[in-house]
Amino acid sequence: RVRNECPDAAIILMSDQVNCLTAGAKVCGDHKPLLYCATKENSETIAETARKAGCSLAVKGKTLGETAEISEQLQKAGLKDLVLDTGARTVRAAFEDQVAIRRASTKHRYKALGFPTISFTCEMTQDPLLETMIASVLVAKYAGIIVLSDLQGDTLFPLLLERLNIFTDPQRPMVVKEDIYPINGPDENSPVLITCNFSLTYFIVSGEVEASKVPSWLLIKDTEGLSVLTAWAAGKFSADLIGAFVKKSNIEDRIKHRNLIIPGYLASTKGELEEELPDWKIQIGPREASHIPPFLRDWQAEV
User: Does residue 172 sit within a domain?
Assistant: First the structure.
């Protein structure tokens, strides 16, 4: 059922019975689930199941040392796609094990622990808020897979955002693609706004446009991840570049009017933009994103 209704979902098959895991792996077919789990008692039989099914295999010991021991045995048996579970079900123990595994595998090149880890925060507490807090610790230190008791937006989104912020190259700005973004189902009479491709600016501006309930076209100009004023000061959001982008974007094919709303902080470029885009009316938008909704509700195209 999960395979049919959620074809992109990752599947973890959990059972103490090897024959159940074998049957489950056959049903999943090409989805290749994670088999959970190999223990000291069943490692030999479950290893054969994982090998035949071509699936990843979780390794669980009662301690970190036992987990490493089982991992070594499975590697000798020819299995290389393993996931480690040290059995820790308290915050302190899980944290300490994650750090120990990372140090042993990276600093000391200990191959038995050189695999991703899995943590079950769903088994550490019954409090959803506390579970999310524990998960946030393990996102940073250094769990590869975190199993939650439920997937709710108010708990999942902060964890995904944390992961995004941690595992991002700080030397590369977070950007969105240069493009035309339709918001609220715009048509040929909808307003056209333009801003930079710094991701924070995009998400704030697009969020306010969406909140306005006004169908709009949002043009995103590549400024190499710089904010509006920074990009303007660096010469990456100047009138000539904006004019060239507007022409190249072919937004004219989607609208009847010729009105372009620019960020309020670029008011000084209005005259230059009118020279670059002689057929367009340049309108100065709000300086603050929070003022966008009332601005759009009162917006009228200039003839």
Answer: no
Encode 76-112 in three state secondary structure. Answer: HCCCCCEEEECCCCCHHHHHHHHHHHHHHHHCCCCHH
pTM listed for this prediction: 0.64
Residue 97 domain flag = yes
Q: Give the CATH number for residue 244.
A: 3.40.50.11600
**Are 142 and 102 in contact, with CB atoms under 8 Å apart?**
yes
Domain count, the chain: 2
pLDDT tens track for 201-241:
999 999 999 999 999 999 999 999 999 999 999 999 999 99
